[in-house]
Amino acid sequence: xxNRIRFTTLIFILFGAYIYLILNLYNLQIKKxxxxxxxxxxxxxxxxxxxxxxHRGVINFTDKAGALIPAITNKTYSTIFAVPGEIGDxxxxxxxxxxxxxIPEAKIKSLIGTKNTKSLYRPILKRATDSDIEKIKxxxxxxxxxxxxxxxYYPFKTSAAHLLGFTGPSSKDDxxxxxxxxxxxxxxxxxxxxxRVSSGKTFNAKQGEDLSLTIDKNIQAKSEEILKNLYTKFxxxxxxxxxxxxxxxxxxxxxxxxxxxxxxFSKSAIDTYLNPVTQAVYEPGSIFKVLTMAIGFxxxxxxxxxxxxxxxxxxxxxxxxxxxxxxxxxxxxxxxxIEGSINTGTAYVGSLIGREDYYKYLVKFGFTGKTxxxxxxxxxxxxxxxxxxxxxxLGTAAFGQGISVTPIALLKAVSALANKGIMxxxxxxxxxxPVSLGRIVSxxxxxxxxxxxxxxxxxxxxxxxxxxxIAGKTGTGQVPDFKKGGYSKDVIDTYVGFGPASNPAFxxxxxxxxxxxxxxxxxxxxxxxxxxxxxIINYYNLPPxxx
Length: 547
Hints:
Layout: H1 2-31, H2 33-41, H3 43-46, E1 59-62, E2 68-82, H4 90-101, H5 105-112, E3 122-128, H6 130-139, E4 144-153, H7 161-164, E5 167-169, E6 176-178, H8 181-185, H9 187-191, E7 196-198, E8 201-203, E9 211-216, H10 217-233, E10 238-244, E11 251-257, H11 276-279, H12 288-298, E12 307-310, E13 313-316, E14 319-322, E15 330-333, H13 334-339, H14 343-353, H15 355-364, H16 391-398, H17 407-418, E16 422-424, E17 436-439, H18 443-460, E18 471-480, E19 487-499, E20 506-513, H19 525-540
Parallel strand pairs: 1-9
Antiparallel strand pairs: 1-2, 2-3, 2-4, 5-6, 7-8, 10-11, 10-20, 12-15, 13-14, 16-17, 18-19, 19-20
C-alpha cells in the first residue's frame, strides 16, 4: 500500500513538473517570442549586452607583489527600450512613460519614433533605477521591455583618469567605444568581436582581452596625493607626476591634475580629458642643462675640467642672456655650472658642441618624434629653433628655453642618463618585455653627468636623503606670452630625479604649472620629489647606495 502511494505521489510530481515546463516554454516561445525575436533580429545592429555582444576586457593596476587590482571593470545596468512595431496606442504609451519615468512626453516620442519605425530596439532610459523598472513591469505596456546592458565602471573614480580614459557612443551607432586614453588605444583588444545570427545559426562572440598595467596602484595613489597637495598649496593651474623604472621603461605611475571622473565624464570640460603628460608641450627650462652637458661629454667637447668665466650675462645674436639669479659667478667649471644652474655657462657649452651636433643628439634623445607609449593622440614638441642659424637659438635651447617638449618625452630622454646611456621604450603593459632603443650617449658620459647631478642634489640639500644618493635637476621654465610676445611672469616648475643613483630603481618627473607668485622649483616640486622618493624607497625596501 505504501509503495502504491509513493508511486502515485511521484507521478503527480512528475506531471506537475511537466506542466510547469510546458508553461515556461509557452511563455518563452509564444508570449515573449516577439521580444526574443527582436533581440535576435537586431543583434547585428545593436549588439545587446548579454546576447551577442562580447564582454569588454577589464584593465588592472598591479602592485609590487604582482596582484591584480581592477582599474576598469564592467557593471550591468537595466535599460528600458521599445520595439515600436509592437506598441498599440502610441499616445497612451508615451503618456504613461512620461509619467512613470518623469521624462517630457516630447522627448519620449523622439526616443521611440513612430509606428513605422523599423528599428526593433529604441533605448528610452539607460541605467534605469529599480523604481523605474518596477513601474514599467506593473504597467505591462506592449512593446516596452527591460533588458540588462553592460557599462564601464571605474572603481577608483578620478585616479589615473587621463591614463585610463573612458568609453562613449560611436559616431556610427549607439555602440560604446573607447574615446580617450587606454580605452581608445586598445579598443580592438578590449572590445572583442561581436557574435551574430545568420541563417538560423548563432556565432558566438569573442570576448574582449583583459589588460594588466605596469601602473602600481600604491605608487599611483601616493603620487596623486602628493600632486593634489602641491596643486592646492601653490594655487597652480595644473600639474603632472610620472614615475618609471629607467632599466625597463615601465611606467609605475602617471597622474595629472585637474582631473575628472570617467564614470561621469560628461560633467567635466572637454579639454580636461586631454592627457597633459602626452598631449601638452612646454618649455622645460634648466632640466635641459643635464642633457646639454651629457652631449658635451659624449662629443668630447668638454671635460669636467672645462671652465667658463661668467660675467653674469652673454650676448648672442644681439640679445642678452642673463642668469636666473642675475649674478656673476666668475670662473666656474662644468660641475659648478650645473650646481648653480648657470644659464650663461650652459649656453657656452652649447656653442662648443655646435648647432649641427646638438640637433643630431636631440634627435637621438627622441625629441623629433613620439615616444610611442601606448596612449592615443600623442603630440610632439618642437626643437626646430635649434636648426636656425642664430646663436641665440642654440644658446637658449641649451638651457631649455625656445624649444618645447612633452613631459613623457623629457622623462624618456633623462631615463637614458639614469640607465648608463641606454634608452628604454616607455611601456604601460605588464605583458610587454622591456625594449631597448639603443645607446644615446656613452656609459662614461652618463656616469659623469650623473655624478654632477648627485653633487647638485647634495649641495642644494632639499632633495637629499640619508643613506641614499639621488641624482636630480630642477627646471623653472618661463611661459611664453603669445599675445604680447616674449615671456609672461608665469613659470612652470619641473624636477626630474632618479635613485638610488648607483643602481636606479625609479625615475620621477614632477611638473607644476604656474604656481602662485612664480615660486621656484626648489620651493615647490623638489620637496614633493623627496616625499615621493622616500615613499618608493620604503615601499620597495631598497638597500642604501654603495657609493
